Amino acid sequence: MQHLAIIMDGNRRWAHENALAIVSGHDKGAQTLSEIGREVARLKIPFLTVFAFSAENWRRSKAEVNALFGLMRRYLKQEMPNLMSENIKLRIIGDVTPFPEDLQSLFTTAETQTEHNGSMTLTIAVNYGGLQDIVNAASKFDEENPDLFSDEVLERFKSKLMTSFLPPVDMLIRTGKEKRISNFLIWDCAYAELYFSDSYWPDFDVPQLQSAIKDWNSRVRRFGGSVNEKTTEISEQPAPTEIKSEKNS
Asked: Out of 11, 18, 27, 57, which one is annotated catalytic?
């Protein structure tokens, strides 16, 4: 597996069911991210991308949004030593311009300080929407090409996306009982295996992550091709935007 994506859903419902303030759910969710991130790095999965704040989250109360901003500040400050010691690169995708200037500065500092780390890339999506990303990329893509689905055109278009530095998603995990991708990494998840957990994100632990990856390892990824049942090898080339070697690792 090269790229694992996670929609960290259920913080608010976890807090409600445990008779806690909403911010407590988000705080526990941040602790879970730290634990899961360390395990993903230990498993040598080179890319982990998580959905922290969607473009739709602005609809929440001002108090909750401000609390999320405060949590982002604390997370970045607390996790920087760990990111450096574990050689993890941090990337932020999404439109951060509406965020407080000090938080934008923290994003930039964290990305700069971890720029040369190479064991894993942790990408955090904030104020991000997959549809918005595709529309923005299309506005930059002004070259005409009659063969709209050639490898070359797809690769050029991908280069305009915020996720241009990421390989295709191999598996998307969503916690919190919901079963949809909610405008997350729409382009990158074109051939992703989907895994839905009934656990709220604060309760999602390392054994559950390991169970999800075991499930992924048991699946056969065809990419529209046929599979020899005895060897489970793909008999046709994968889709143009996929990594060339598609056997599960």
From this structure: 57
Is residue 168 within 8 Å of 3, Cβ to Cβ? yes
Active site residue 57: yes
For residues 130-158, b (16+ Cβ closer than 10 Å) or e, as one string? bebbbeebeeebeeeeeeeeeeebeeebb
Digit-coded pLDDT (tens) for 180-209? 999 999 999 999 999 999 999 999 999 999
Q: Would residue 117 show up in a list of annotated catalytic residues for this protein?
A: no
Whole-number CA gyration radius for the chain: 19
Please give the model's pTM, rounded to 2 decimal places: 0.85
CA distances from 75 to 46, 65, 102, 206 (A): 21, 15, 14, 20
Q: Which one of the listed residues 9, 133, 170, 188 is annotated catalytic?
A: 9
Q: Which CATH class is domain 3-217?
A: alpha beta
Q: Where are the domains of the chain?
A: 3-217
Residues 152-160: contacts with CB within 8 Å, 24+ apart? 154/240, 154/241, 155/240, 155/241, 158/187, 158/241, 160/136
